[in-house]
């Protein structure tokens, strides 16, 4: 089951980021399918687009509060918008790195990009159901969304 | 191949052979030259001695004359006598030296020289004794008298010998001088010969050296050209080995790799340690021990000349192997490799090397598998279409809606917050119930493809239930299978929509393709759909279990619309349970003196004004009290202390607990312990209750009391 392996890789990437960069483990909730409406988007979203054998988008979306506390944990004092964007971009970069490492040439991965705002629309393939993996950290809640066909 | 090898060797050896030959010739020439030079020197020395000796006969004459006059004048003659003695001894020694020089000059055996030398000896032999006689006198030659000195006897004898020697001196001058002249002339010729000979040797030597120099220059040029060719060829080989995608290498008789291999080899084998490695060591981390042993035997066989390499290639164990390579960043990567071997013929009768070719065939294998999968998918699609065409249209539409709802409900359960262990277990059980319900209906409708997928999802859920600790990560396989199921179901839904376009109006109870059995044809006056479904369930389950069963239904046509869905789900589960768990195999029934075809009865009836009673019973073996208790204890559903206190009804009630099943094996039909759990939950949600009556070896009866349909709870499953 290829999709299972791919999701596992992305989840590991995010959890590993919390373990190493933030130095405080995050917990994975039960994943589910986003049916009927797009997955919830939080304040900052870092994403990679994938083409090649698989096509789609993978993104990590988190609220500002969560990212700010993450920065504090990382001894950062600058909580500016740019720094929060950098942080979520760094998570996306980790997703990209792990995908390259695990899937190699089967995946063509775009440069990570960052979007802000909860009203942002992220284009999903219409014939693919996004799989939402809740990422809980402290009292905060973020989502890792994998939408690949 | 043989001819080329010979040429190669000759080309290599020719300069060495030529140089060696020329060096030998030069050595001989130089040796001869040195010899000639030495002989020339000796001949010259002999010539010089002979020339010096030619004056000696005259000298003897002079000294003898001085002695004669001295004697006549009675003066001292000791000095000339001494000179004569010294000259005579010198002449003897000179002759000895001449002989030695002649010998050294290689003239000792020359006839002419020997003859001259003989004549000289003879002449000297005649003259030398006379000189010896002259010098042999001792004592004073004079005697003093009053009249003066006069010769005494010695003097007179000396005078006589001197006279005799002087008398012979002229002959001596002629004979000895002539012999010495001849000797000198002969030696002069010999010196000339030796000189010419030496010059010839030196000329030849110089010519040979010059020729050698020319040849060396030629060979040097040729060698440089050959080296340039070799370097160009080497570059070309390096280009080929650097470009070719296959991993090429040579194996020697020790099955070790050589120093030359293609650049792709380390990349394909994921190791830089290739050079001079034993092939077995290289292969060991890639394949299981058994494959390794077989592969080494195979490679060893290739060395045997009698073995046809093309024929045994068909049994090459390395023709296609799946190997795991460690990734640099952790984890492993699966690749497919193919090894092939060819003998490389050398100069001998047998090959000197094996050429190994290793290719990464992962893409090829994956394409082949995808093709295979594509064929299987096409076949599955075809099978699915046939399955769908056999299902009455209304039932198909209803199933798609129900299944979609159940899967959405499962997804909603997953989406609920909660990550504690108990919450995750509750999610597991909730999804399990939903999936199991849909699976039962899919099986009843003969939708094997979707039933199989649901079964796989159940497998994933069952694996999680066995785990002591579960977290969100563990649900990834569940959600992926759920996604796949929804896609599959969506495809069926689309098919059902298209089917609606061709379905005759008002004939939704008939399938496009007749069901498999003639007595199952559904027409306007056919049995109600639920009875049809239950019959299918009983028939399929019994066939899968090797049992015989007949279904008897009563009152199912009177089910109020509000209960139809719930009763539908409940009876499908319970009818299947009755066949799988309740009734015996034919041999068991024969042993119990029962009819070989078991009876499964399903009835629905009104129970006064309070509600309804749904009954499902079978004439099977009854509920196995001991086995239920054992199973509950084994699965930890009850503690041993509680088990000891439990009454029979409470023990029978355990079969409604989530995860309970007495089935030995999990199959598509039973074994998860979900069916009765789901039934129990449905009945509870409807506000009803379940009663069990059973007698071991005789029957099992489930009576489900349901409230009147007008109660709000009855709308639960609608």
Give the uncertain stretches of chain B in residue-range form. 1-7, 516-528, 711-718
Integer tally of domains of chain B: 4
Distance between the termini of chain A: 13 Å
| Overall form of chain A | globular
Explained architecture:
The complex is a heterodimer of chains A (149) and B (718). Chain A is globular, with a radius of gyration of 14 Å. Chain A contains 3 helices and 8 strands, in the order αββββααββββ. Chain A has helices spanning 2-22, 64-73, 81-103, and strands spanning 27-28, 32-33, 44-52, 56-62, 107-109, 113-116, 131-137, 140-148. The relative contact order of chain A is 0.29. Chain A has one domain (2-148): 3-Layer(aba) Sandwich (Chemotaxis protein chec), CATH 3.40.1550. With 149 residues, chain A is α+β, with helices and mostly antiparallel strands. In chain A, strands 1, 2, 3, 4, 5, 6, 7 and 8 form an 8-stranded antiparallel β-sheet that branches. In chain A, α1 (2-22) crosses α3 (81-103) and α2 crosses α3 (81-103). By secondary structure, chain B is an alpha+beta fold. Chain B has 4 domains: 2-221; 247-361, Beta-Lactamase, CATH 3.30.450; 386-522, HPT domain (Four Helix Bundle (Hemerythrin (Met), subunit A), Up-down Bundle); 527-718, 2-Layer Sandwich (Heat Shock Protein 90), CATH 3.30.565. Chain B has 21 helices and 12 strands. Chain B has helices spanning 2-53, 56-73, 78-104, 111-135, 153-243, 264-269, 279-283, 289-301, 309-312, 362-389, 393-415, 421-445, 448-466, 476-502, 529-545, 561-582, 586-591, 625-634, 640-645, 648-653, 675-685, and strands at residues 142-145, 148-151, 247-251, 257-261, 321-326, 332-345, 351-360, 549-554, 598-607, 611-618, 689-695, 699-707. In chain B, the strands form 3 sheets. In chain B, strands 4-3-7-6-5 form a 5-stranded antiparallel β-sheet. Chain B has a 5-stranded mixed β-sheet with strand order 8-9-10-12-11. Chain B has a two-stranded antiparallel ribbon with strand order 1-2. In chain B, a hairpin with a 5-residue loop joins β6 and β7. The chains are: A alpha+beta (149), B alpha+beta (718). At the A-B interface, α1, β1, β2, α3 and β7 of A face α11 and α14 of B.
């Amino acid at each position: 089951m290829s999709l299972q392996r791919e999701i596992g890789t992305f989840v590991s990437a995010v959890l590993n980021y919390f373990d190493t960069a933030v130095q405080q483990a995050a917990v994975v909730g039960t994943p589910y399918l986003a049916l009927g409406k797009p997955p919830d988007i939080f304040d900052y979203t870092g994403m990679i687009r994938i083409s090649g054998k698989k096509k789609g988008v993978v993104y990590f979306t988190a609220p500002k509060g969560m990212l700010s506390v993450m920065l504090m944990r990382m001894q950062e004092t600058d909580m500016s918008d740019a720094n929060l964007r950098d942080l979520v971009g760094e998570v996306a970069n980790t997703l990209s790195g792990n995908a390259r490492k695990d899937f190699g040439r089967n995946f063509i991965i775009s440069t990570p990009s960052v979007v802000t705002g909860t009203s942002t629309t992220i284009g999903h393939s219409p014939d693919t159901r996004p799989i939402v993996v809740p990422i809980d950290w402290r009292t905060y809640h973020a989502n890792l969304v994998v939408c690949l066909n | 191949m043989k001819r080329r090898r010979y040429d190669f060797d000759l080309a290599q050896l020719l300069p060495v052979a030529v140089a060696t030959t020329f060096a030998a010739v030069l050595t001989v020439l130089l040796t001869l030259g040195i010899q000639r030079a030495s002989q020339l020197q000796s001949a010259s020395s002999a010539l010089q001695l002979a020339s010096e000796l030619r004056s000696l006969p005259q000298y003897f004459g002079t000294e003898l004359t001085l002695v004669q006059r001295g004697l006549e004048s009675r003066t001292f003659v000791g000095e000339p006598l001494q000179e004569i003695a010294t000259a005579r001894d010198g002449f003897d020694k000179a002759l000895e030296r001449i002989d030695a020089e002649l010998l050294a000059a290689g003239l000792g055996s020359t006839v002419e020289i020997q003859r001259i030398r003989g004549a000289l000896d003879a002449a000297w032999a005649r003259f030398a004794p006379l000189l010896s006689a002259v010098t042999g006198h001792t004592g004073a030659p004079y005697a003093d008298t009053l009249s003066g000195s006069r010769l005494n006897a010695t003097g007179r004898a000396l005078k006589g010998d001197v006279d005799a020697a002087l008398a012979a001196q002229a002959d001596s001058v002629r004979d000895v001088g002539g012999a010495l002249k001849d000797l000198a002339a002969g030696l002069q010729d010999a010196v000339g010969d030796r000189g010419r000979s030496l010059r010839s040797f030196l000329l030849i030597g110089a010519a040979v050296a010059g020729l050698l120099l020319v040849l060396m220059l030629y060979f040097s040029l040729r060698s440089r050209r050959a080296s340039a060719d070799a370097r160009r060829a080497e570059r070309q080989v390096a280009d080929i080995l650097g470009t070719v995608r296959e991993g090429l290498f040579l194996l020697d008789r020790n099955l070790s790799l050589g120093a030359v291999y293609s650049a792709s080899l380390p990349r394909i084998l994921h190791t830089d340690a290739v050079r001079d490695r034993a092939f077995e060591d290289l292969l060991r981390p890639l394949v299981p021990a058994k494959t390794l042993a077989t592969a080494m035997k195979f490679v060893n066989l290739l060395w045997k000349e009698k073995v046809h390499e093309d024929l045994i290639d068909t049994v090459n164990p390395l023709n296609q192997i799946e190997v795991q390579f460690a990734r640099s960043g952790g984890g492993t990567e699966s690749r497919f490799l193919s090894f092939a071997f060819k003998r490389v013929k050398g100069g001998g009768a047998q090959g000197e090397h094996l050429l190994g070719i290793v290719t990464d065939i992962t893409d090829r294998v994956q394409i082949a598998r995808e093709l295979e999968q594509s064929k299987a998918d096409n076949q599955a699609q075809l099978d699915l279409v046939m399955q769908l065409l056999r299902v009455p249209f209304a039932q198909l539409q209803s199933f798609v809606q129900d299944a979609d709802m159940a899967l959405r409900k499962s997804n909603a359960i997953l989406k609920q917050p909660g990550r504690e262990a108990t919450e995750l277990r509750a999610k597991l059980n909730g999804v399990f119930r939903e999936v199991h319900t849909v699976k039962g209906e899919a099986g009843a409708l003969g939708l094997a493809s979707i039933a199989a997928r649901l079964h796989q999802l159940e497998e994933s859920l069952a694996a999680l239930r066995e785990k002591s600790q579960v977290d969100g990560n563990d649900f990834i396989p569940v959600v992926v299978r759920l996604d796949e199921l929804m896609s599959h179901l969506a495809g069926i839904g689309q098919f059902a929509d298209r089917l609606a376009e061709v379905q005759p109006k008002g004939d939704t109870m008939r399938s496009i393709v007749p069901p498999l059995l003639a007595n199952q044809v559904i027409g306007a006056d056919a049995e109600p759909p639920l009875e049809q479904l239950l019959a299918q369930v009983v028939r399929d389950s019994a066939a899968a279990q090797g049992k015989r069963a007949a279904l008897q239904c009563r009152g199912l046509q009177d089910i109020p619309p509000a209960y139809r869905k719930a009763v539908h789900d409940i009876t499908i589960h319970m009818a299947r349970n009755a066949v799988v768990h309740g009734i015996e195999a034919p041999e068991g029934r024969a042993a119990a003196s029962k009819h070989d075809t078991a009876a499964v009865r399903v009835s629905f009836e009104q129970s006064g004004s309070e509600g309804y009673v749904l009954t499902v019973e079978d004439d099977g073996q009854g509920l196995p009290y001991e086995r239920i208790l054992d199973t509950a204890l084994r699965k930890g559903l009850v503690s041993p202390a509680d088990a000891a206190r439990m009454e029979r009804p409470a023990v029978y009630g355990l079969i409604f607990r989530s995860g309970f099943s007495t089935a030995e094996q999990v199959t598509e039909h039973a074994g998860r312990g979900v069916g009765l759990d789901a039934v129990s939950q449905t009945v509870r949600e409807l506000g009803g209750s379940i009663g069990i009556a059973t007698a071991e070896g005789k029957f099992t009866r489930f009576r489900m009391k349901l409230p009147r349909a007008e109660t709000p709870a009855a709308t639960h499953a609608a």
